[in-house]
Design a protein that fits this description.
heterodimer, A: 329 residues, Uridine Diphospho-n-acetylenolpyruvylglucosamine Reductase, domain 2, Uridine Diphospho-n-acetylenolpyruvylglucosamine Reductase, domain 3, 3 domains, five-stranded antiparallel β-sheet, four-stranded antiparallel β-sheet, 21% strand, B: 709 residues, alpha+beta, Aldehyde Oxidoreductase, domain 4, Aldehyde Oxidoreductase, domain 3, seven-stranded mixed β-sheet, 27 strands
Chain lengths: 329, 709
Amino acid sequence: MENFEYAHPAKLKDAIAMLGANWSDAAVLAGGTDLLSLMKDYVEKPKRVVNVKGIGELEGIHTGKQGIMIGALVSVEELRTNSSIAKDFPSLVQAAAGIASAQIRTMGTVAGDLCQRPRCWYFRNGFGLLAQDADGKSLVPGGENKYHAILGNDGPAYFVSPSSLAPALIALGANGTITGPSGSREIPLANFFLIPKSASEREHALKPNEILTRITIPAASQGLHNATYEIRQREMLDWPLATASVSFRLDGSTIRSPRIILGHVAPIPWSATAAETLIAGHSLSEELSEQVGEAAVRGARPLSQNKFKVQLARVAVKRALLAALIQGA
Amino acid sequence: MAEYKWPPAEKRSLIGKRIPRIDGPAKSSGRAKYTYDLNRPGMLHAKLAFSPYAHAKVTGIDTSVAEKMSGVKAVQIIFPVGTEVHWAGQEIVAVAAETEEQARDAARAVRIQYDVMAHMVSDVPPDRAGANIVNSGEVKEGDPAKAFQEADIVHEGYYGNTQVVHCCLEPHGQVAEWQGDKLTVWASTQNVSGIGGEFAKSLTAKGIPVDVANVVIICQMMGGGFGAKFAADPWGVACAQLAKTTGRPVKLMLERDQELMEAGSRPTLYARVKIAGKKDGTLTAWQSDAWGTSGPQAQSPLNLPYLFRFPNRIANFTAVLTNTGPTRAWRAPNAPQQCYVTMCPFDDLAAKVPMDPVEMYRKNFPILGPRVKEYAEQLTIASGLMDWKSKWHPRGDTRPGSIKRGVGVALHTWGGGGRSSTCQVRINPDGSVEVSLGSQDLGTGNRTVIGIVAAETLGLPLEMVHVNIGDSRYPPSGSSGGSTTVGSVSSSTRVTATDALNQLFAKLAPVLGVTADRLEATDSRVQVINDSSKGLDWKQACAKLGGTSIIATNQMSRDIISAGVGGVQMAEVSVDIETGVIRVDKMVAVQDCGLVINMTTAESQVYGALIFGINYSLYEEKIMDQQTGRHLNPNMEFYKLAGMNDIGELVVHMMTGPGYDERGPIGLGEPPTVSPGPALSNAVANAIGVRVPELPMTPDRVLAALGKA
């Protein structure tokens, strides 16, 4: 990795002041499970590394009237084993458990999971987030794209959003709090993720001098059901090939307010709105869940090597819905 | 001349028993030092600058910036201007600095100019490879055209093995240190006695004259080689050059990406196969058009089919030249690929007959080569351990649900045999025993095997014998390749320990009042045969040596070892036909290796081979990008290996007793690696009803075979 200046502030305010106007000025270090490998591979070359692990105000899971507030520094393992979360939000526990490495769950943080960079192997091999050759042409459509996007892939971005927790959090209606030099703002987490349109853009709404400081999940409503279904090849630590997180309220046997969010199939956690419409107001059957899975991938445009991911996304939605129905809140 | 033979079963106190490896505590406690762990006083660290291009000519190398960087002590050009680079990742320059980080930074600061040339890294069939092919011609036996015409059943299919690498957990590398004109290299090598000469020759050619007698190679602990670590390698020679230039020890270990890009891979093998037989399952004809790449060099033609001797056969092989990187011997070189493109079409034909493949193997024993007697027994034992009869069903699991289960079988052979090996056994007056030979333990348990043979021969417990290996100053012993190590070292150790013991008997015969041929060593005693009251404790006996140790040195004898083993493997899998994800439920391996020296480490070799097989069958794949010529997954994240929960239940059964033991020890590292591919692929076909034609059987390939992707 390149040499860098190291800072270890104790206050959020100080940490933000240490960030810069450009991404190359500084990087935020929390668990380090992604940043360190990016730096070792010379993909990220920040002039300064700001370690936020000592900032107490970013820690802890707090339950209040608005719901559950999760500090940025809460580890994935802490999230996975929290009893309030387990009681109301099994989809989040399942998503966290999908990170099948105790080491990464223990070191990695919730905000780090949301802010980690894509795993696209062109990006990680130094070809940039948009995987472009010297002429600005993307290497992905004509290259090795079996793990790339099948939705939201009009270009120039073809990577998939790597976050394990984001689909579940978005399906639960979570908000994210972003703190910068001029204070904090809270946005729906669904709006946190962006599809970059140029090489200078990033895949999320943070500015270089901002930190994602908190996630808030609204209190579980009566009859809330939710689940995450992940398809990955190996039992051991392995990136998901496709995931689906769903949540809905069960009114008798009628589905109300469904949310269906796909993971690892698009540059952002993918909201399957047509599928949500199809299911709202109906009672769930295996047949309907299959139709909903079908609707969730209707707009998919697979690349040369990843048609199989359409099938996987379809199945993930079906299985997540059926799992949510039986496990519920 | 002494007669050398193995003790009969009733006389074996150690051989064939379950014995923990003698270096186990050191390894499991972390005290064992691998090459990567070694740090010599004053040692520098070296890193490599390598080509980002798959095919290019080096036109300029500017090391001036790197040389001036903090901590940098020396720069060594490995491949000079004018060199044609044949794969991305080829090393060009090595830089030595005070710290690893400084060396890495400096290696990145080396400016190398290239004339970039056209590359080919796609593993394409010959008809799409342009001029980059070498056809080795057609092999024809019998009258295949007529046989296909007259056949009751004909099957045609395509089968392929994509590229995998060795992925040694300890990468290649070494620490080099000079003292005057003497060079010591601590290397991660399969060839302790062999690479010294290579270092001497290469260094002398590069202007550093050094005699092979002045080169010492040391490898005490090793994190795997699998066929990739026989050579000094250009980076090894560069490391020694840097050590000479700087006058300090230098460590150069490949980083993970370099290890996966250029430290060896397995040649690919693809084939369009046509296979024919009679209604009763008797095979009659084979036809194959096969191709594969072994990188920029044409690989030698691969004989097909594997194992079967068809009366009518026509086979064609074309080597495709690519810039994917160099291949190296990969655990049973070529046999897993050949076995795969043979046993899968065999299984497909069986499904078409239709016939239980176990029965069809039996039906074709007349053309299955020299190990059919073993196969006959092994198929029966494997069937029992797998509960084959109740689990096997005609192709396609018809039970409801998305999880389909199936079983598959394959069988294999391998040579083994021995390489030259010299051993020295020293019996000291204090009763201590040292056995020394320039062999190496790749992690197989070789050190323990040597100890067991010496201890058994001398009638001592294992802990009384000190084994010295992993150092080229010991008597030379062959490299560990071709499953020859145990055959070589068990033979040389048995022979030499017998010689040493006979010398001891000669000294003691007058003391005990009998001739030497009436003495035996057993239970830590030297005593008169059939009269244990007349004898001495081992220590008392050795004390009679006075001040002089017995030192015996001798070679291995081919009379007490042999070559040629057989094995049968069965696999049981569950396949989710909606996701294409395969789970290995169980694998059974029934294997022979002649006389088993240590049951524990023999079984471990087979367990390891099954895991190796699960990896290359389901997960491992070197992904090359034709646009950039680059290897995209030179890491442990997307170059996938199984975790514990991906492996399933493994059952290993070693064949022992009459028919096996009398053949003497035969190496075991490679044979059980051969069958897992077809056994698993056949199990998947049995489960889902269709063939997944290529390994690894990733979800995309499984779903494509099912028509769902």
